[in-house]
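Run: sequence + adenosine-5'-diphosphate -> complex structure.
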Amino acid sequence: MTAVLAIQNLVHRFPGGVQAVNDVSFAIAPGETLGLVGESGSGKSTIGLLATRLLAPTQGRILFEGQDITRLSAATLRPLRARLQVVFQDPWGALNPRMTIGRLLEEPLRLHGGNLAEARLLAERVRLPLATLGRYPHELSGGQLQRVSIARAIANRPKLIVLDEPTSSLDLSVRAGILQLLEELQRETGVAMLFISHDLETVRLVSHRVAVLYLGRIVETGPAAALFETPGHPYTQTLLSAHLPPDPFVALRRHRVQGEIPSPINLPPGCFFAGRCPLALPACNAGPPAMQPLAPGQEAACLRIADRTNRLEPAEDPA
Ligand code: ADP
Ligand code: MG
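>> structure
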């Protein structure tokens, strides 16, 4: 089956020498949600912009439904836009404040002559109270506005929605409802999703598969359940242990990671995590480590995996 989105060896350098994306490859199947997780500054949003071609990559290829869109002009991309949608973190910034919710919903439907009746159906599909249709964005809550953004994204039966931190500006109680809505819409329509978040728990909840990003490079990828259960890369292990809730036993399990995150302007030649990794070998600094298989569908870019010495030992009790 053709992937809805295939990213191949993507590289992106910003002016000033920032290497935001470093040789990233992945594919998303129809009906699948790939979670892209990483700390702030790891290149998640840049990958989202490249995937939707709101930005052109320095190197690499982007295939949407098998079509190479890497170098297409804005004009050539326009007819594809309906099938390739984005939802951003900030629904206030994404919606025209001078348009009523009804008009905001009608706008994407116009592509095939949509009207208010269809806008109402759309509102119902995202469980937006019909009373909001006559209101303006500033009169709605953040959760309702995000439902408007999602409604606009699904209006023209997209094949892929890229969601960049779609619930990060929302209260926890509102977040669950939005995640449930996304899951429902995916079940109904088979739309594929690239779900970008720095929040591990959110990513675990919505993703079929997860890719872990560190300094613009994917260090590990696998089925969500396997990756969260037995993370392979020392960086993923660290990330997951740091995320555990405060607990007397956590201190014992925390891994001692030292040093600073390298600058994205001057990245090391080998594994980007080597300088901080308690398990680093001299060979880790020689060149980018290749992906090693861990379990079905799960792989990580760590030399230690070959002989299964990749498990971080719990730090000793600091007391
Ligand atoms: P994330 O979404 O994971 O927080 P970003 O993709 O926003 O990460 O940023 C990745 C890196 O690229 C960061 O080092 C960031 O400072 C840099 N960056 C992002 N946008 C620009 C830009 N327009 N110009 C220069 N550097 C940028
Ligand atoms: Mg971001």
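>> summary
The chain is about 30% helix and 20% strand. The longest strand covers residues 18-28.
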